[in-house]
Amino acid sequence: MTDLTRNRFRLIHRLRVRWAEVDLQRIVFNPHYLTYIDTAFTEYWRAMAIPYESIPAQLGGDLYVKKSTLEYHGSARLDDLLDVGIQCGRIGNSSMLFHAGIFRDDRLLVTGELVYVFADPATQTSRPVPEALREMLQSYEAGASPIEVRVGNWADLGAQASAVRREVFIEEMGIDHALDADADDETAVHALVRNRMGQPMATARLVQEGPELARIARVAVSRTMRSTGFGRIVMQALMQLAAERGDTRVLLQSQCSAEGFYTRLGFNPIGEPYDEAGVPHIDMARRIGAL
Known about the structure:
Blueprint: E1 11-16, H1 32-47, H2 55-59, E2 62-72, E3 81-91, E4 95-104, E5 107-119, H3 131-141, E6 147-152, H4 154-172, H5 177-180, H6 184-187, E7 189-195, E8 200-210, E9 213-221, H7 230-244, E10 249-255, H8 259-264, E11 268-276, E12 279-287
Parallel strand pairs: 9-10
Antiparallel strand pairs: 1-3, 2-5, 3-4, 4-5, 6-7, 7-8, 8-9, 10-12, 11-12
């Protein structure tokens, strides 16, 4: 498998070699390469918008490693930046073969093959790979988007938008439920990101504040799906809608910890930080046109 190249892999995850991973020869101790591959494997599922921990509940089974093999072609050293590629090579009746490649720049250092078996978590006996999972793996490897973006009203999207908001605002941040739900939900336009199993991953809402003035609020991304771009996707969907209906300015209340995220989307701070529901916030605004 020394002919593997980086462009073979749909998923490439970058990491840096740490001091604790180097042996007395000053190269990466060989078992750590399996850890690198396992780390990238988790990112592979995240890239498919599947929270890895939800697989048993969603698919009625879990993944178990049956076999893993590594072949070494070179050595990584302290502070090297490594790119770890993962590819689903074959899906059988109950097993899945994944290929892995670890690169430093364009040099292939390690190749790997991992066989996973889909099995009952209670008995650990194999069962057929669910068609939903088979389709998601094949579609992802073919280059299809792992998500859908829906824009609509509360009657259509409210149940799933509420699930994401409850996870983020109430369960994670400890905000009172009464401060999350309000009358604006019924009149707002909501955006929702879902994976191919229909699980909600991110949400936000757009409220008309006045002539040509809108407000985006309740921006929430499931904890396991952060840094995937889903927050940007729901924001852009709502800003596009605001521009299409003639709004020229969009306001929002940003948690201070998220100010950089909104700045990258073109928003600018207004005034000074303040406390909202026990969390530091700052008002931000952006002018918009046709996006």
